[in-house]
Structure formats: structure tokens, C-alpha cells
Design goal:
about 475 residues; mainly alpha; 3 domains; 17 helices
Length: about 475
């Protein structure tokens, strides 16, 4: 099975475009002034966009959007202003192109029915909460309009990418292999930074690396690679870890078994050096939850546990040999949990009080939350470090319930698919989708996964769209 399929007439074009893109990329990264790089990126955009449009592989197109989102946009080319109002990332441009190129599947939107109304009302209510901001001015309105665009409109856009782009279930199977490959790349970039002490965000320039992310300072050992924050990188691992194990157990081709085994080892090696308590706990929790629900014989579940144990042992010895200093720091931080001194409990209680006082929300501006929190407990933070509390306090109880309904319907029907439909390939794909959705939901308990600047919420929206596609393809039309 080839992940990326091209018709024969595009083979030469593929080679030429790939070589030209690689050359221009290397030229931009290392040989010219930082301010001139965007001129080269502008040229690269048309080269890659032409290749993107001509390609007949939907897997390649969706993978390109995810790659641009996680690697290129987070590291190299951050969001740019458009018309001095909207901030547009390169991944959004390609996501829009992909949605337009998928118009053949536009009729699929007719199968959304009630879910479509949930999306519509959720977006409308999210926009209207802007007007609930204390002391709203025109500048604050524009600032929140950008937040609405980036956190909500783009979220829906990436949902559409996952829902409309694919045509067959085999495409989703191939895309899962790409996700595993990206997991390897995320872990490798993190490990590279640990070894070299180089923050890869520095490619954008020294000003892109904040003081607390400067790895030259020994006290800044906690680092999240392409996701910047180690907690968000660990949240990505929480989503992907069970997928790697499921593919390793179910895939018959040795190439994919090796790839998924490598991903699991790199993942555990990487997450064990982050010092992320929630990350370590939820990676294990998501794996165990999936194992508990996994419809398989006792022998297969035993094999699942043995594989997990082997990976853990191997990863531990690798970390012990090559990254013992980071491992000890990480374990020390994880073990030092003082509930009485943890400000999160006070912050969550304060957030609940805000919700009772403002059941329709307080607006999307981080300062609206931050100043209220500071007046209450003397600590200023832009969000409550809990995705659910953030959605409630920002969007109101009704907005949160609409969002919860959207996620619940997809998750429920995906669970049903594992029971109602036969076929090994379809069942294990549904298990993978369940793991991707549950991983994000678990991570949201202790961090602001929905609102982080490294677009983890966009990644989740894409996975949610995959669930909707599979439910539409093999389940009820009402997704």
C-alpha cells in the first residue's frame, strides 16, 4: 500500500517540484537575511501550491496541511497579518484550498443535519460573547475578532478538512500512518534540542525565543519542541500514543510495524524528559482506557500489554543512558506535587465563581479573565489551565454545551462503529479515532489545550472531522 499515490504523468513534476522546493528552502534557511526569507517563502508558496493542486492524492494534501500547521507554521513562518485585520497562517491558506478542491463532496454537508445547527449556534454565540467584554472599545473588539477567527472559525475550517477531503476509508488508514510519522518527527525535534541546546524556534530569529525558552540557560531545561510548551507537546503524545500501539499490533506490513514501534519508543523517550505531570499521567491513562474498551481476545490484550511493557523498558534504558540528567530533573519535578501550594485549585475555584456570576460568558479576551483572576487570588493568568472551564467562562454555559454536543455525537457514533461493523481494518481505525479524540479531552483537564498558540486545537478539529467522515461513510448519514 502506497501512502501517496500519483498518476504517472505527475511523476516527473513531483521530482522537479520536490528538488526545487528543497533547494529554495535550504537557501532561505541558511544563506539569506531573515527579513529576506519571506520573499523566498512567497516564491515557495506558488511552487508548493501548484504541486498541491495538481496532486491526485488526498492523503498528501491533508498531510501537507497538518505538516504546515505543526512544523512549518509553529517553527518557521508564524501567522501574518492580512489586510491589517486578520492573522492568517500558511496552514489556513492550504486548508481553504483543500476545502475548495473537495467541492465534489460538498453534498456530504447535507448529512450533518442537527450537528450543523450546533456548529452554527456555537460560532454565533462565540462571536456574540465579544460584546460582553468589560469596557469594550473598538481596539478590543478588533483584538477579539482576531481571537474569534483563530480559535473558532479556523477550528471549524480544519473540521471541514477532515470531513470533506477523504473519499475512502483506505485514505484514513494511510493518514493514520502519516500521523505516526509526524509523531516521530515531533519527538526527534525535541530530542535534537535536548542534545544541542538549540531552540528550533530560533530559526525565525532570536526575538522569537522568549527568555524562559532560551535553552542556553540551564534552568530552562523544560522544552516542548515544535509545540513550544512541554505540556502541549505531551498533549499531542496523549492523542497519538495509543494509535501507534494499535497500528503496531494490527498492521501486517513490517514497515509500518517498525515505524509505529519507533514512534512509541521516541514518544516515551521524549515525554519522560518534559517534567509534564499531566502529560505522563494522561498518556498512560489514554492507553489503558483504550485497552479496557478494546474488543479483542485475552491473548491479544496480553500481547498489547507486553508490547507496551517492552517499549517502556527499552525507552527507559535509552533515556537513562543518553538523557539521565533530564530524566532525573523530570522525575523530581513530577514527584514534587504540593496540593496545598498548587495555585491551580484556587484558580479553578475562582473560575467557577466567575461562571456563576457570568453564565453567558465574559468575552474572548485573555485580559478579561486575567484581571478578574488577579483581583480574586492575586495571580494573573490568561486562561484557567482547563479547556472546559475556559470554554464555559469565555463562551458561556450554552456555548459550552453546544461544543460538548458536537464532540459527544462524534465520539458516541465512533464507539458504536466498533460494535456494529465488522472488518478488522474499519474497527481498528475507529479505535484510533477514539484515542485521538479522548487524548485531547483528557489533556484539556489540566491545560488550555483549546486556546494554545501552537494550534493543538486545530489538530484536534482535523481528527474530529475524520471521525465525522468515518461516521458518515459507514454509519448513519446524520453526523
Amino acid at each position: 500500500m502506497h501512502i501517496f499515490n500519483f498518476s504517472s504523468r505527475f511523476n516527473i513534476i513531483t521530482g522537479v517540484v520536490s528538488a526545487a522546493t528543497l533547494f529554495l528552502g535550504v537557501f532561505a534557511f541558511f544563506l539569506i537575511d531573515y527579513n529576506m526569507k519571506y520573499s523566498v517563502y512567497f516564491i515557495l508558496f506558488f511552487v508548493v501550491a501548484s504541486f498541491y493542486i495538481m496532486s491526485e492524492s488526498q492523503v498528501l494534501k491533508v498531510s501537507s496541511v497538518l505538516f504546515l500547521l505543526v512544523f512549518v507554521e509553529n517553527i518557521l513562518v508564524y501567522n501574518r497579518y492580512f489586510l491589517d485585520v486578520f492573522i492568517v497562517g500558511i496552514s489556513v491558506v492550504f486548508a481553504l484550498m483543500l476545502v475548495f478542491l473537495s467541492t465534489r463532496n460538498i453534498g456530504r454537508l447535507g448529512g450533518i443535519y442537527f450537528q450543523g445547527y450546533c456548529w452554527l449556534f456555537f460560532l454565533i454565540l462565540s462571536f456574540l460573547t465579544i460584546f460582553l467584554t468589560d469596557g469594550l472599545t473598538l481596539d478590543l473588539f478588533y483584538e477579539q475578532l482576531i481571537i474569534f477567527q483563530m480559535k473558532y472559525v479556523e477550528f471549524f475550517l480544519f473540521f471541514l478538512v477532515g470531513y470533506l477531503a477523504f473519499d475512502e476509508i483506505e485514505d484514513v488508514d494511510k493518514f493514520l500512518k502519516v500521523i505516526i510519522l509526524f509523531c516521530c518527527l515531533v519527538a526527534i525535534t525535541h530530542i535534537f534540542s535536548l542534545i544541542t541546546g538549540y531552540n528550533i524556534e530560533g530559526i525565525r530569529g532570536a526575538e522569537a525565543v522568549t527568555q524562559e525558552r532560551d535553552l542556553a540557560d540551564e534552568k530552562n531545561w523544560r522544552y516542548g519542541g515544535v509545540f513550544g510548551n512541554p505540556n502541549y507537546m505531551a498533549a499531542f503524545y496523549t492523542m497519538v500514543a495509543p494509535v501507534c500501539l494499535i497500528v503496531f499490533i494490527n498492521e501486517r506490513k513490517y514497515l509500518y510495524k517498525i515505524l509505529s514501534a519507533l514512534a512509541v519508543c521516541l514518544l516515551f523517550l521524549s515525554v519522560s524528559t518534559t517534567g509534564s505531570r499531566g502529560g505522563v499521567v494522561f498518556v498512560v491513562t489514554n492507553i489503558l482506557l483504550l485497552l479496557a474498551y478494546y474488543k479483542a481476545s485475552v491473548a491479544n490484550k496480553t500481547k498489547y500489554l507486553l508490547c507496551l511493557l517492552i517499549f517502556l523498558i527499552f525507552s527507559y534504558f535509552m533515556v537513562e543512558i543518553f538523557f539521565s540528567e533530564f530524566l532525573y530533573r523530570s522525575l523530581e519535578r513530577i514527584s514534587q506535587i504540593d496540593v496545598a501550594q498548587d495555585v491551580r485549585w484556587d484558580m479553578w475555584l475562582s473560575t467557577l465563581q466567575m461562571i456563576f456570576q457570568n453564565p453567558f460568558g465574559i468575552g474572548l479576551l485573555p485580559e478579561s479573565f486575567g484581571f478578574r483572576l488577579y483581583n480574586d487570588i492575586g495571580v494573573y493568568l490568561g486562561h484557567p489551565h482547563n479547556a472546559y472551564l475556559y470554554l464555559i467562562v469565555s463562551n458561556g454555559l450554552i456555548g459550552f454545551l453546544l461544543f460538548a454536543r458536537i464532540v459527544y455525537v462524534q465520539l458516541k457514533k465512533t464507539f458504536q462503529n466498533t460494535r456494529e461493523y465488522s472488518g478488522e481494518k474499519l474497527v481498528y481505525i475507529n479505535y484510533c479515532i477514539i484515542a485521538l479524540i479522548l487524548g485531547f479531552m483528557l489533556s484539556g483537564l489540566v491545560n488550555g489545550a483549546f486556546i494554545n498558540n501552537y494550534k493543538l486545537n486545530h489538530v484536534f478539529a482535523l481528527f474530529l472531522g475524520l471521525s465525522a467522515f468515518v461516521n458518515h461513510k459507514y454509519g448513519e448519514r446524520d453526523v
